[in-house]
Design goal:
The complex is a heterodimer of chains A (292) and B (276). By secondary structure, chain A is mostly helical. Chain A has a single domain, classed as MetI-like fold (Orthogonal Bundle), CATH 1.10.3720.10. Chain A has 13 helices and 2 strands, in the order ααββααααααααααα. Chain A is globular and about 75 Å long. Classes of the chains: A mainly alpha (292), B mainly alpha (276).
Chain lengths: 292, 276
């Protein structure tokens, strides 16, 4: 009997082992390996030996890198702010008795389900100067002779708009679920007491929604920091370096210029930022048994 | 006041605008894919006057989409099957751990961290490692990477589905003489089947849509997947707009269908437990 109980107790751990090995192989192993690569010198993909902190020093002094970081920061903040506001607005709008509620919902959510590469294609077809629909539409508003992807500012705003299109649905989805999980009694009580809907929103809904709102913002920020696919398809970082986000520059450094060590040094610097954000997100999520 | 007509007009008006904004790019891509080359350049028709499938034929005849599609299907099928095989037992173990709480929490944190790492952090080491084992530009290389990465996602989603199965049902089976293993097969798995199907579909979406890993690990149509294939259509000087739009449609259609199937589980599958 004692033997059987022991085997039951050990059973779950045995089941965890293969998955743990698989996970470690694609996370801990590459990160350690990458960290080692970041202190070595590579040329044309060949490892030439120990380089100390040279890669890090080069990266920090590289103006293109700091510009890419600044562009990424601007991109992330702008996208996340707009997406949060729009997502919250839409969630509040849909969070009521609607005719065909699930149809409205699926329509809004669809953009986030398709591959970012396909999203890039869609917007390339819209922004294209010869066959696109963006230029004539801007013409209707009296803006002539501007090609979205042709100038630095408009290209940056163009990729932000794409991101807003693709990821507002995620904010909408999380915040709608958050709104639906709020207790209804205090809200109804406040409304019966004569509070205006706007007061009820700021005094009751927003404070209760805050944890979900924070998690949504941090999750979206982490994803936005890693944005690559759409930019690769749409602008490859141009014109100039106006849409060269961090991941595009790191990709070019590694796979066009084959400077793996230098690219890994960039990546390690970014990893620090991502880990801080991830730690915040995980704290806020209050994980527990059955977390979904 | 709540029922005044202008509020309803405002509500549905805003929703209609949001839907048009969300769906128009889909429509524009689809119509472009169905237009003749001449018509694509001739102006801004919202629908093709004479729809044609030429662009789709061109994809398969001149742009290698046969191999791309085959690679995508093979890679996605094996990666999803393998990661379900690895992840589901682990998720089951997590819901049955005697040390309820601590270890489970640590495991979930690790799984989440892995999921949050941007792909750009991982592809450089992946590239060097695959090169060492001669696995660059092979479907096997992609399958190994996707299996590992997706296992965490499977654990995450499956433990949430498994935790919803009442313990009493399994306990009752044990009392009736089942062992843990037979109870798992006879009682737990049938109840978890819908959750497992949803997990599989979300995994298909994740892996089919991946671009950066496939882009960096492959270089020829021998192993390139659909998203990489789409990006190869974007030349430096000229772009074949019709085939590119058609490629986008091929990339989007299976995913939209899958997404419609699992829309009930969207919050769980796409938001990483942001909402309890």
């Amino acid at each position: 009997m004692g033997g059987r109980r022991a085997s039951i107790a050990a059973g779950p751990y045995v089941l965890l082992v293969p998955a743990a090995i698989a996970l470690a192989a694609v996370s801990i192993y590459p990160l350690v390996y990458g960290f080692i690569a970041s202190v070595r010198q590579f040329r044309y993909g060949l490892d030439l030996g120990f380089a100390g902190l040279n890669n890090y020093i080069n990266v920090v002094q590289d103006e293109t890198f700091t510009t890419a970081l600044a562009t990424t920061a601007k991109y992330v903040v702008l996208c996340v702010v707009i997406e949060t506001l729009l997502g919250l607005g839409l969630a509040l709008l849909v969070n009521r008795e609607l005719r065909g509620a699930s149809l409205w919902r699926i329509g809004i959510i669809l953009p986030m389900t398709v591959a970012p590469v396909v999203v890039g294609v869609m917007w390339r077809l819209i922004y294209a100067s010869d066959i696109g629909i963006a230029d004539p539409v801007m013409g209707l508003f009296g803006i002539h002779g501007v090609h979205v992807l042709g100038s630095e500012t408009s290209a940056f705003l163009g990729v932000v708009l794409l991101d807003v299109w693709e990821w507002t649905p995620l904010m909408f989805l999380i915040l709608l679920a958050g709104l639906q999980s709020l207790p209804q009694e205090p809200l109804e009580a406040a409304l019966i007491d004569g509070a205006s809907p706007i007061r009820v929103f700021f005094d009751h809904v927003l404070p209760m929604l805050r944890p979900v709102l924070f998690v949504a913002i941090v999750l979206r920020s982490i994803d936005a920091i890693g944005t690559f696919d759409q930019i690769y398809v749409l602008t490859r970082g141009g014109p100039g370096v106006s849409t060269q986000l961090f991941s595009i520059y790191a990709y070019n450094t590694a796979f066009l210029f084959t400077q793996f060590g230098r690219a890994m040094a960039m990546v390690v610097i970014l990893l620090a930022a991502v880990l801080v954000l991830a730690a915040i997100a995980i704290r806020l999520m209050r994980l527990g048994p059955g977390t979904r | 006041m709540r029922g005044t007509w202008w509020r309803r007009v405002l509500l549905y008006g805003t929703l209609v605008v949001a839907e048009i904004f969300a769906l128009f790019p889909f429509w524009w891509m689809i119509t472009t894919s169905l237009k003749h080359q001449v018509e694509i350049f001739s102006g801004l028709e919202l629908a093709p006057t004479v729809p044609t499938l030429d662009n789709f034929f061109a994809l398969f005849e001149t742009y290698n989409f046969g191999p791309f599609l085959a690679n995508s299907i093979i890679v996605v099928a094996f990666s999803v099957a393998l990661s379900l095989l690895l992840g589901t037992p682990a998720a089951y173990a997590l819901t049955k751990l005697p040390t309820e709480g601590w270890l489970q929490k640590q495991a979930l944190i690790i799984v989440l961290l892995v999921r949050m790492l941007p792909a750009i952090l991982l592809v450089i080491p992946f590239y060097i490692v695959l090169a060492n084992y001669q696995l660059l530009n092979t479907r096997l290389g992609l399958i190994l990477l996707y299996t590992g990465l997706n296992t965490g996602f499977v654990i995450w989603l499956m433990q949430s589905f498994l935790a919803e199965i009442p313990r009493d049902i399994e306990e009752a089976a044990l009392v009736d003489g089942d062992t843990r293993i037979t109870a798992l097969y006879r009682v737990v798995l049938p109840l978890a089947a819908p959750g497992m199907a949803a997990t599989a579909i979300f995994s298909v979406i994740n892996i089919y849509n991946d671009f950066l890993i496939a882009l960096t690990m492959t270089s020829t149509p021998e192993a390139q997947t659909i998203p990489v294939g789409v990006s190869t259509l974007i030349g430096k000087i000229t772009i074949a707009w019709g085939p590119m739009a058609a490629a986008g449609v091929v990339g989007a259609v299976p995913i939209v269908i899958f997404a419609l199937i699992v829309q009930r589980h969207f919050v769980r599958g796409l938001t990483l437990g942001a909402v309890k």
